[in-house]
Design goal:
Length: 439
């Protein structure tokens, strides 16, 4: 018995070790999956959701400077990207996420040139032109003033970018595709779009509305069944910019011949930042609440029953609340960052009046029925579960009252009948959550 007990203990111990090994394997697989997801997210945030910086480095005589070191630093994250000028003094730094950068140019026997507040936007190459170095020691620094060129000479691609401030300030109500309508050559396609719409259906340079290509962070966001965007975003605090390319696409684009609309989401930085907002719209101040309406001549006052003026129903109530925010910051400074946004849209509408096609006893008719047929189960049911027993939508008489003779075979009575009308409430709830991790 004692040996048996020992054997059982050994088996249990082996099973326990096997269970621990399986748990360790599962946790390892989960960890690898998360890392792959994070690395994939980092890869997705680049690609064609990026911009570039280029220029030429020269000396005081205008001769090119080969082998100069160019360092481009994102001021929000301290991420640095290095490049070296070619034999012709040219450099290009590709795949830069949109943001503000500091460009430093160093070369032996020359003073270091620094360009601050260099803005990079998606799908555009920022040409800095000729950066002239001055003779001196490498440790000496000279600030170089430069501006963004009005015309992009490095490509024929026509790109229009809308910044996060423009996206937030323009009264778009979450319909960010409508930004394309601000661009020359883009027109509202109206009922001829035959595709999904996130607030606007448009045609670019005379092409079909279904020829547009929609992206989020450079990844396809197209509905492959009916065209148009597949995923709608309503939170302006989630967007860094909206980029629209209208013609002469670069080789990295394809799929469609119309415009390319690219939503670029925000990323975190080395500092914690957050925001919050709430938009309210309601009908409490709407007019026409107490006017009278003539069924033939329209609105009239004062009430004149002889002329057919009857009180107008109060304007149906409507309330919409859009609220949300954002939070972003470092997971590890200079290495990894996160950004998260929640967004909610709640609509409550009383709805338009809906009248029944059949006639039912009016409230006065129900009283007449109870008096004429006391104890009748059908009359009791009408009072308990009839149209006027359901108070939702404010049931009321619609149209003219028609007195009708009612009989149970023994007793007869004239009862008021009419159509019943009510405002059927309409509810809408939208919840959006976006998250992003950059490495």
């Amino acid at each position: 018995m004692k040996r048996y007990a020992n054997v059982q203990i050994l088996k249990k111990s082996a099973a326990s070790r096997g269970s621990k090994l399986r748990q360790q394997w599962l946790w390892s697989a989960l960890l690898v999956s998360v890392l792959c997801l994070l690395l994939g997210a980092a890869g997705f945030s680049q690609g064609i959701a990026t911009g570039s910086i280029s220029g030429t480095v020269t000396d005081p005589t205008g001769a090119t400077v080969p082998g100069a070191k160019v360092t481009v630093v994102n001021t929000a994250t301290n991420q640095a990207t290095n490049a070296v000028t070619s034999d012709s003094g040219f450099f290009a730094v590709r795949s830069l996420p949109p943001g503000t950068y500091k460009v430093t140019v160093e070369s032996k026997n020359f003073r270091t040139a620094v360009l601050d507040k260099v803005e990079v936007v998606v799908s555009q190459d920022l040409g800095l032109g000729s950066i002239k170095l001055e003779l001196g020691q490498v440790g000496d620094v000279i600030q170089v003033e430069g501006g963004t060129p009005l015309i992009e000479t490095n490509t024929a691609q026509v790109t229009t970018s809308f910044s996060t401030k423009e996206v937030a300030d323009l009264p778009l109500s979450g319909s960010f595709d409508a930004l394309a309508l601000f661009i020359p050559g883009v027109a509202d396609s109206g009922d001829s779009s035959f595709s999904n719409s996130n607030g606007a259906s448009f045609s670019s340079n005379g092409l079909r509305g279904r020829s547009n290509n929609f992206q989020i962070d450079g990844q396809s966001n197209n509905d492959n069944s009916v065209a148009g965007p597949s995923i709608f975003l309503g939170n302006q605090d989630a967007l860094e910019e909206v980029s629209v390319i209208t013609n002469d696409f670069g080789v990295e684009y394809g799929r469609a011949s119309g415009s390319i609309v690219n939503y670029v989401t925000k990323s975190g930085s080395n500092d914690f930042h957050g925001s919050g907002f709430e938009y309210y719209e309601g009908s409490f101040a709407d007019s026409h609440a107490n006017e009278e309406k003539n069924p033939v001549f329209g609105f009239c006052a004062p009430v004149n029953p002889a002329a057919g003026c009857t009180p107008v129903q109060k304007v149906p109530g409507f309330v919409e609340n859009k609220f949300g925010g954002s939070i972003g910051g470092p997971i590890k400074r200079d290495k990894a960052w996160f950004f998260f946004t929640p967004y909610f849209d709640r609509q409550r509408a009383a709805g338009s009046p809906f009248a029944s096609s059949s006639f039912t006893p009016t409230p006065n008719g129900l009283t007449q029925l109870a008096a004429a047929f006391p104890g009748n189960p059908a009359v009791a049911a009408l009072n308990a579960i009839g149209p006027y027993a359901v108070k939702a939508g404010n049931p009321h008489i619609s149209g003219a009252v028609r007195p009708t003779l009612v009989s149970d075979g023994t007793t007869s009575a004239t009862i008021d009948f009419a159509q019943v009308s009510r405002n059927v409430p309409s509810l809408f709830n939208d919840r959006e959550f976006t998250g992003r991790v950059d490495l």
